[in-house]
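Batch job 17 of 40 flagged for manual review because the log was empty.
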Amino acid sequence: MEQILYQSAVLSASPLLSVLFLEKSRQLVTGAADGQVWSFTLPEDHRCHLVTKLDLHKVQQRHQRHLDTVAPQTGGVLGITPDPVEMAKPVLRICAYDRWLPDIDHGQQSVFPYGIRFSVYAPCIDNSWVWMGSSDGLYLVDLGTSELHMTLLFRDHPNLSITMAGSWAMSQGLDNSMIFVVTSLFEALVSVLEVRLLGSGSVDNLCQHLEGLSVMPSAPLIPESPLNAELKKKGPKPPTKTGKRGVKEQPLVFHTQVKSSGYTQSPRMTMFSPKTNVQKKTPGPTKTKRKIGCLVSDYPGDTAAPSVPHTNLSTVKTPTPVCCAQYSGDGKQILCGLGDRSVLLYKSSLTGTPAVYTGHDKAVSSVAWSHSRQWWLSASEDRTLRIWPTGSPEPAVTMGGDEKFSKTIRGAQFYYLDKFLLLASGPSLHLYLYHLDNTQDDIKRYQQRSAIKLTRCLETKSGTDITAVSVINDFYSYIVLVSGADRSIQVLDMNTGTVASQLPDAHSRAVHHITQNKGSMFSSQTPDSYNLFLTSAVTDGVKMWDLRTLRCVRRYENHLNRCHPCTAAFSPCGRFIASGSEDNCAYVYDIRSSSYLHKLQRHSDTILNVTFNPATPELLTGTLDGRLSLFRPGNAAISVALS
């Protein structure tokens, strides 16, 4: 008996011409006559959902812009001649391209596309790449990133007898080669093509000049580096010269103090009295001093992703957005910046009454902990930044204002193991040295003993406003990532104080959030894993990039993000990615798959912020109406009803 297991809605007004089932990833891929391609998951229960949707024509245009940026167009296989007339690209045939990936260290590590290494996974075949045959040529597309890797267009090869294809037949050959049989649309012609991808034919080779970029420093600081700057401390004032003056009357002794004669003191009334009945102290048991803070448990690397709700609460009585949130380095405290101009300090368990910090005049846009956890900062839409001592209701430093910053402060953070302050305003990135002193004079309370000095001010290449900033403060790193309002991503090398690389058109909209895989003090990863970073943009999902090639290595777009600045985050173990969404759900992805792993439902509004606890497998979400939710793995959490 035949029955329909799944039926999608109408995908396109154009007919669907091709279909492919990827058995390993259990995905169903179909292409239409207008160049649209859809990829669905096909689970065991046949509850399919859309993973990827792309337009072949737009993908080719983005690929061409990337080639024009990375290297000058030289024609041939890699250079693509722009279309004189825009035409449809019907997807006539789709075929999987299985690339055997080499094993590293006898199975201890596996190399994924673009050189990403994961030591915990076994070697496998990467079949996220597919060949698509269209009427004007061949396209090699990565479904995991929606990026085009290679094109073979008929117009770029005049020696081919076929100028317009009518049908394609494809088969996998040996040594990563492909055999294609193509027929002409208007003539009785058949051609057989063999395409073999060599090292020189890969787009990644155009990025060889970027291979020096790495989060981990590979060279010492140069002498003129901005990171060598130091804040000079004011020493004691030298004694002033009094000139030739007469010798004043001084006591005839060889020291400055003269012992009192005792005439002004009252006579001693109590003479010597011996102490009697003195009890001897019995020696108690010796206590061994143990530094509990040094006993740090490792982050469990094999635990499941947080998926079970544990705690849910409202931050304020009146609904207000949770604009930003961050755990402390030890995972014991949480800072939450709200839209009502206040900052709340919670315990990581979200129990007890939070400490409330006020002083800003507008919504708090960012909060950040110092590496030492002795200080934390808050930046606001009122163009001010405040640095607070831990446990103090008053800030040690208040800087900014309309006279200092012409535009809103973005991405204020501590940098270089708390040596610098880093913040962006407009097209400028400001690097400050600082000295914090929380002591106050009871008489001169208005005097601020802390000091802040501007060390370097860097500008973006195109002069565009900076929308997001990401740096690593847990270890020394020269790399600073910024995103611009012109949809670009720029990599700044703070060792030289210059823009090391620039990627235009990173998203279809400006990036509103960027974050790096920082790990934590409780979890260690392979050095190459720290070169991964995430970017989020409205209507364009989340992309994962590799800093060494500055190319997208995975795309996540199951969540909904149409207008609000929803953020994303890496888990401390580097295995999971979480993202906020506008459908009142948080999405947890496996880093190796574009399909979501868990959909955390039962939220009351749009989820703006997600962040992982660096010490334990916990996920914190903050919503548009001011609610915080805590999720834990299913084997370690107690499910409670969310109110």
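Reviewer: the log was empty due to a logging misconfiguration, but the result itself is present. The mean pLDDT is 83. Unflagging and moving on to job 18.
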